[in-house]
Amino acid sequence: VNVRIVGHAWRVPREIVVNPFSASYRLARVAALTQPPARSRNERFLRRMGLYGMEVAHEAFAAAKLAAGPRYGMFVGVGGLRAHWDDMLAALADQDAAGTDAWERGLENVHPYWMLRHLSNNVHALASAELGLRGEGATFGGADGGLHAIRSAARALADGAVDAALVVAYDSLLEPETLVELGERMPADFVPGEAAAAIVLLPDAGRTLALAPLNRITPIMGQLGAATAVVQAILEIS
Amino acid sequence: MTAVITGVGVVSAFGAGAPAFFGALAEGRCGVGPIRWFDASTFPVRVAGEVPASPAIPAAAHRDRKASVALAAAREARASASDSTPDAALVIALGLEHAFLEDFAPARSAVEVTPRFRARVDTAADIVMRELGLRGPRVVHVSACAAGALAVAHAAAMVVRGQCDVVVCGGADSMVNPLGLGGMSRLGAPSPRDTADACRPFDRARDGLVIGEGAAMFVVEHEARAQARGARVLARIAGWGSTQDAYRATAPRPDGAAASAAMQRALVRAGLSPSDIGYINAHGTGTPLNDPAECKAIHAALGPHGARVAVSSIKGAVGHLMAASGAIELAACLLAFERDLLPGTANHHDRDPECDVDVIGPTPRRARVDHVLSNSFGFGGQNASVILGRPQ
Question: Is the CB of residue B222 less than 8 Å from the CB of residue B85?
């Protein structure tokens, strides 16, 4: 991967702490982002981690000092839940198991943007529009999403398909549903974390992108899911 | 170095199996109808491209309808390719899917919901890997309605670069469930019509999409490998391109400029000129905004040939399969090579003057073409175009 990082930004946990809520699900320690994301008009479309994703995308791109361009690509890795139910509970509370009259029992009151808030490529859509990135791009899902985003960005740069690439990844293992799931199948010393990170890549035949070893992350930040690879890349140059 | 398709599997409103899909498209049938598997009678939208029950579809594998249709399609694809390499990679496009209302109703806190609803975005991919016994790399595309096309392009790139010998790829999605239907209805995307002809791509009377569900999966491998093992090649994956509108989250760029750029990039990668394209399988959602923008993009990308190339959309026939739409539409393109037939546009009768391209009506058109291009445009302006070539 012959690229160099010309801009980066992240939101990563600063420490691992004992957490009573997660402890009730067998995972005593967590690594959380404590500073909430800034208020944004994108709250219509994005949940908390997506807002962090937007912040790091803007900061990394600004640090790279590049103008917007038709040949700038964007590649995103996202983890997290397939869907969130906390903002659906009012629509679900009166449903019956057979689904009878589901519309009148609450679905008619679902927020019109509920569906949009669950699309995995929200950050891709919003950040590419706000930053004017019109080149190649894709969004990858899962714990390896950030790694695939880096690989695809590097491939696009190597092919000459894009002149620069913004890579963004974010994930949280701290949502209640995830904690329940992890508590059931992971060892008690597993430390769920969360992070958002972004890098801007340019082609550079003389450099090879390296990722810092995981043991530089997990003792401080816990497990970062889809954000891991991008955090590793930033750590390596920090 | 060319990646080729040697196997295909399809689950659609026409049932399980690629033959059922190709047969229905060849006959110009429409698979959209009243929703049957849950009571949609009180919803504002009551029709969809619903997959009928079939013994070939695992009964709600792991209570995940996406995984069920993906498994059925992937098994068919591997069987049709006569390839069961365990080291194959999986590159799959997955969407949201919210099914099984009984799993969380009534639910009063997020942690009350059953384990299925704690699923992460890529859970269905893990199910498919495990059930198929795949040991190769795994990539999950979640770029909304562009994801299926991007997954196939990604698979082709992996093969061409020598990263994998063979890739099982495609897309699977289902929104035909109470939450999917409810959420989409509140968003205002579906046509308000309550009839099977609700989705009318490029038609003057178009007023929205119809929700569909299903999967299309392919076996993609290097051409030399296919030749060496005597596999029948269904198509060459000649080129692909992607762009971003960088316009708005909720609407396509009206001038189609970025969509046009995706098509042009695919042409460049394929080493083709516009006149080499004999057919375009359009994204063609049947929504007021998409179709004219796509036509502008076709004209911009293909120049004078844009007015001559045959264009159709299968979304009137099978609905909008969301993350799987790009995959099933590439499968539809195989009809051009298999039977010298270009799929029709179900429910298209009165072309909108704003959609000034050669739209194939409901009846498929007989033609021999060497290259076809399929467009997929996702929410938020993610555009993908893939070009398939006739097997040599």
Answer: no
Furthest-apart CA atoms within chain A: distance in Å: 64
What phi and psi values does residue B317 have, to the nearest 5 degrees?
A: -90, -40
Strand blocks (E) in B36-182:
47-48, 89-94, 138-141, 166-174
Residue carrying the six token digits 């409810």 = B182
Q: Is residue B373 a contact partner of residue B330, using CB atoms and an 8 Å limit? A: no
Whole-Å CA distances, B184 to A56, A119, B30, B176, B202: 30, 12, 21, 10, 21
Whole-Å CA distances, B39 to B66, B86, B116, B214, B248: 20, 41, 22, 20, 35
| Whether B380 and A121 lie within 8 Å, measured CB to CB | yes
- What is the tens place of the pLDDT at every residue in A195-204? 999 999 999 9
Residue B48: which residues within 8 A CB-CB, separation 6 or more? Answer: B13, B32, B33, B35, B176, B181, B210, B211, B212, B213, B319
Alpha carbon B151 to its chain centroid, in Å, reads: 10
Tokens 């509140």 — which residue? B186
d(C-alpha B188, C-alpha B176), whole Å: 15
Strands B89-94 and B166-174: parallel
Span A8-41, pLDDT tens digits:
999 999 999 998 888 888 899 999 999 999 999 9
Q: Which amino acid is at B381?
A: G
In chain B, which residues have their Cβ closer than 8 Å to the Cβ of A223?
none
CB of B210 within 8 A of CB of B49? yes
Rounded Cα–Cα distance for residues B9 and A185 (Å)? 34
Q: Out of A82, A98, A115, whose CB is closest to B183?
A: A115
Q: CA quadruple A176, A181, A187, A190: dihedral positive or negative?
A: negative
Q: pLDDT tens across B328-361, in order?
A: 999 999 999 999 999 999 999 999 999 999 999 9
Confidence of residue B249 (pLDDT cuts 50, 70, 90): confident
> Mean pLDDT for chain B?
92
- Active-site residue, B62 included: no
Instruction: For residue A154, list chain B residues with Cβ-Cβ distance below 8 A.
Output: none
Query: Among candidates B347, B376, B323, B353, which has minimal Cα distance to B142?
Result: B323
Any catalytic annotation for residue B333?
A: no
b vs e for A82-101, b when ≥16 Cβ sit within 10 Å of the residue's Cβ?
A: bbbbeebbebbeebeeebeb
Per-residue tokens: B112: 């009350």
The answer to whether residue B348 is catalytic is no
Structure tokens that stand for B12 in this block: 């659609």
Q: Is the pLDDT of residue B116 over 60?
A: no
Instruction: Collect all residues of chain B within an 8 Å Cβ-Cβ radius of residue A177.
Output: 110-111, 113, 117-118
Quick check: A166 and A22 in contact, CB under 8 A? no
User: What is the distance between the alpha carbons of residues A84 and A118, in angstroms, rounded to a whole number?
Assistant: 8
State ipTM: 0.95
Tell me which residue of B149, B132, B139 sits closest to B324, measured CA to CA: B149
Query: What pLDDT was estimated at residue B259?
Result: 98
B101/chain A closest Cα distance in angstroms: 6
